[in-house]
Amino acid sequence: MQAKTESRLRRAKRTRMKIREHEVVRLCIHRTPRHMYAQITSSDGAKILASASTLDKALSKKLKVTGNVEAAKEVGKLIAERARKAGVQKIAFDRSGFNYHGRVKALADAAREGGLEF
To answer: What is the average pLDDT value for the chain, to the nearest integer?
Structure first.
């Protein structure tokens, strides 16, 4: 039986290979029990075009707790805003093997509301 982390990384690898085939810019997220991280990378994965996390100074002052759904929504809004400034509108969502619910879903929905298409 595989460990939980190994299973997640296997799912993430499969998703990333599919995204790489389509050659689109991707929104890659990572979650820990305490924080949420998001970054937009170029289609080949060589450059980071925009990034946001609960550790950003803009958000850390606003947020009381950084490991909940509200914090994930704020990260989603911030990454959408920074992506638009970088000239990115259409992306592929890379959830890094995490299940699409809770904080991951909240971040994705907030990014969509912020103007990103995926």
So the answer is: 93
